[in-house]
């Protein structure tokens, strides 16, 4: 799209599509599970659309301060969620143009350039073709399923990690904030002598590896005798 404002509206529509699918999926869960899902519990949050070579769409509850210079923001609201989409590209934020995404996306570098340390979600897509309603629906449903499974897993962990509930609370807080390595390290603290958990943590923290905190959490739930949400036998 040659018109920058048309592109911004397309991105804002994509974001609304994600949130609509999220809300639709969340409506199928029990009220208390819905209440613990990050986008529904956040109140008002900001969605950043940052253009490097790829388009990065990330939601955060961190404040970004007032608009400055050529920054643009479009508001949105749906089913109890309220957000503003703020747009950054190399013209508005020149440091984005220095990120090399020739071989792969660099979400950590994009977040660092924006100064954002915690995220509710981070989606990487291609400008234009990757902004279809179908793709937005798929992303939103997947986010809701993942967030609800995490909420149920943490409830299971609290019931089984007696005396370590505070560590489970910290792990859940790290999950809501999108702090992958913190979640992995807290899993080890919750079950410090469990071999499968230790192996999963070591694998997740291997140099050059992108940590998968969801996989580590599922191993932790199983190690403590529970069934991870979304697996056979899960409640």
Automatic annotation (TrEMBL):
Domain of life: Bacteria
Organism: Actinomycetospora termitidis
Entry protein name: Uncharacterized protein
């Amino acid at each position: 799209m040659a018109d920058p404002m048309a592109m911004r509206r397309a991105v804002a529509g994509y974001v609304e599509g994600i949130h609509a699918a999220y809300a639709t999926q969340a409506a199928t869960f029990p009220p208390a599970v819905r209440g613990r899902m990050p986008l529904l519990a956040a109140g008002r949050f900001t969605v950043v659309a940052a253009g490097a070579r790829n388009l990065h769409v990330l939601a955060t509850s961190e404040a970004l301060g007032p608009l400055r210079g050529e920054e643009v923001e479009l508001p949105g609201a749906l089913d109890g969620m309220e957000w503003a989409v703020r747009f950054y590209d190399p013209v508005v934020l020149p440091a984005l143009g220095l990120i090399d995404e020739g071989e792969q996306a660099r979400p950590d570098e994009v977040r660092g350039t924006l100064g954002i340390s915690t995220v509710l979600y981070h989606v990487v897509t291609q400008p234009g073709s990757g902004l279809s309603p179908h793709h937005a629906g798929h992303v939103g449903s997947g986010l809701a399923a993942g967030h609800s499974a995490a909420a149920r897993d943490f409830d299971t962990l609290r019931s089984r990690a007696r005396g370590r509930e505070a560590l489970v609370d910290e792990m859940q807080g790290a999950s809501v904030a999108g702090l992958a390595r913190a979640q992995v390290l807290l899993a080890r603290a919750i079950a410090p002598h469990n071999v499968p958990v230790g192996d999963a943590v070591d694998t997740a923290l291997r140099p050059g590896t992108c940590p998968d905190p969801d996989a580590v959490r599922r191993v932790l739930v199983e190690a403590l005798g529970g069934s991870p949400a979304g697996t056979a036998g899960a409640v």
